[in-house]
Design a protein that fits this description.
alpha+beta, Diaminopimelate Epimerase, Chain A, domain 1, 2 domains, globular
Length: 279
């Protein structure tokens, strides 16, 4: 099994979110995938399984468990595939549903990809769950931005969205790992999407990821897609629109995620970014 290493949402190997990529995992069982993901040690490793119809099944594993969908590993996988086989469109069958990814390369040889998520949706965050979440984060309720209400959003995986009122609040991340891991396991949340709005079209994000066995995910495409759906559903943006999510700065791995939000209610959210080989 050939395991490639790519960073998504950056053209600089020192930035973005690293992912393991296996372009052909035919015959590899679940235990071997999990073991490979643990050995790689990144937040996720993606395993492509070619199908007779030309589509691909894809599995995503963190070092400790399987997740239904991972945005940054999808971008990394698509670019790695394009680098080897040429640009175009990949039709992926994820556990969350079908996802199309289109790749391109610019005149300077920089590769990028755009995925279109499964239909997004969001639900309310119960008061007790919010209180427990804020307690685990060690964030006072008064530090939240009332213009971006807490919700739990989905575009392939579930993420609570919690908006900080200031950049300083977002930068100060020192949470109770065990308490947050327990809460997220009970609620089947993949990451927590902590955001701060710099301007109408620019947001900063951080994503605690204890279910994956790591403190923080450097750049989270699945959460960015869920966030785009959240903005549209709550009328917090006038679609069609494009917003930018900056993530990873606080970890020293800056990345840029471009989120395209169509006007049609329930339509998939576009998530775009560059990727660069780490091998």
């Amino acid at each position: 099994m050939e395991i490639l290493r790519w960073a998504a949402f950056s053209a600089d190997p020192a930035g973005g979110n690293p992912a393991g990529v296996v372009l052909d995992a035919t015959g590899v069982d679940d235990a071997a995938m999990l073991a490979a993901a643990a050995e790689v040690g990144y937040s996720e490793t993606a395993f492509l399984l070619p199908r007779p119809d030309g589509d691909f099944d894809v599995r995503y594993f963190s070092p400790v468990d399987e997740v239904p969908f991972c945005g940054h590993a999808t971008i990394a996988t698509a670019v790695a595939y394009a680098r080897r086989h040429g640009t175009g469109t990949l039709r992926l069958r994820t556990q969350a549903g079908p996802v199309e990814v289109t790749t391109s390369v610019d005149g300077g040889g920089s590769y990028s990809a755009t995925l279109v998520s499964v239909p997004p949706r969001s639900v309310g965050l119960a008061a007790d769950d919010l209180a427990e979440l804020l307690s685990a984060l060690r964030w006072p309720a008064g530090d939240l931005d009332p213009a971006l209400p807490p919700r739990v959003a989905y575009a392939g995986a579930w993420h609570p969205i919690i908006a900080a009122a200031t950049r300083e609040r977002l930068a100060d991340l020192d949470y109770d790992f065990a308490a947050l891991a327990d809460l997220m396991a009970r609620k089947d949340w993949t990451t927590v999407d902590l955001v701060w709005r710099e301007s109408a079209g620019v947001f900063h994000a951080r994503n605690p990821f204890p279910p994956g066995g790591i403190v923080e995910d450097p750049a989270t495409g699945a959460a960015a897609a869920a966030f785009g759906g959240y903005l549209r559903e709550l009328g917090l943006i006038d679609p069609p629109a494009t917003v930018t999510v900056q993530q990873g700065d606080d970890l020293g791995r800056p990345g840029t995620i471009t989120v395209t939000i169509p006007a049609e209610p329930g339509s998939g959210i576009g998530v775009s970014g560059t990727a660069v080989a780490l091998d």
